[in-house]
Amino acid sequence: MDSLIPFTTSGSLVDCVDSTSVFSISLNSHNILRKMLVVLRDGRKLQGVLRSYDQFANLVLEDTVERIYHQNMFAEQKCGLFLIRGENVVLLGEVDLDQEDDVPLRQVDWDTLAAIHQEDIVTKKARDEFKAKVLYEQRGFCKEGGEGDGY
């Protein structure tokens, strides 16, 4: 039945809902829920277990954490159950738990990284506004978010 669901539709997410990866260590079997990564339009990155979705890509994530990054550091803040409106989803993908541990990032406290992360956001916004201004003035490109721009 799964092979009949086209990959380009929301049916491709069926296998990711409430699914577990099973592995064995000696004689004990363990279930680990698959972690999904969701990147939102505002740049936030959320990780959690996909519990439900609909045809509009509205998502329900459980055991959700928000991650922020700066250089080789990251911090996590627990968010619990998260309902995400589909129009805010930029990217959705499964986190490879085997490779996640190999990424050379150091976890730090949320409060330590939050101020630095906020400063990065402000700097990026200023840089993007400058680029948009130059492109508009010198090349005639429409500013991002202008009239008729859906996003």
Verbal overview:
This protein is an alpha+beta fold and 151 residues long. The chain folds into 2 domains: 2-108, SH3 type barrels (Roll), CATH 2.30.30.100; 110-144. It has helices at 97-100, 110-139; strands spanning 20-25, 28-33, 36-40, 45-53, 59-70, 73-84, 89-94, 106-107. A 6-stranded mixed β-sheet has the order 7-3-4-5-6-8. A two-stranded antiparallel sheet has the order 1-2. Strand 3 (36-40) and strand 4 form a beta hairpin. It is globular and about 55 Å long.
CATH level 1 class label of the largest domain: Mainly Beta
Report mean pLDDT, rounded to a whole number: 81
Q: Tell me the helix content.
A: 10-25%
Instruction: Tell me, briefly, the overall form.
Output: globular
Domain unit count: 2
Largest sheet, in brief, is: 6 strands, mixed
Indicate the radius of gyration in whole angstroms: 19 Å
Q: How many distinct beta strands?
A: 8
Uncertain segments: 20-30
Gap between N and C termini, in Å? 36 Å
DSSP helix count? 2
Report the β-strand fraction as a percent range: 35-45%
Strand order of the largest sheet: 7-3-4-5-6-8
Please state the structural category.
Answer: alpha+beta
Q: Would you give the CATH topology of the largest domain?
A: SH3 type barrels
Q: SSE string, helix = H, strand = E?
A: EEEEEEEHEH
CATH architecture label name of the largest domain: Roll
Question: Which terms would index this structure?
Answer:
SH3 type barrels, 2 domains, alpha+beta, 151 residues, two-stranded antiparallel ribbon, six-stranded mixed sheet
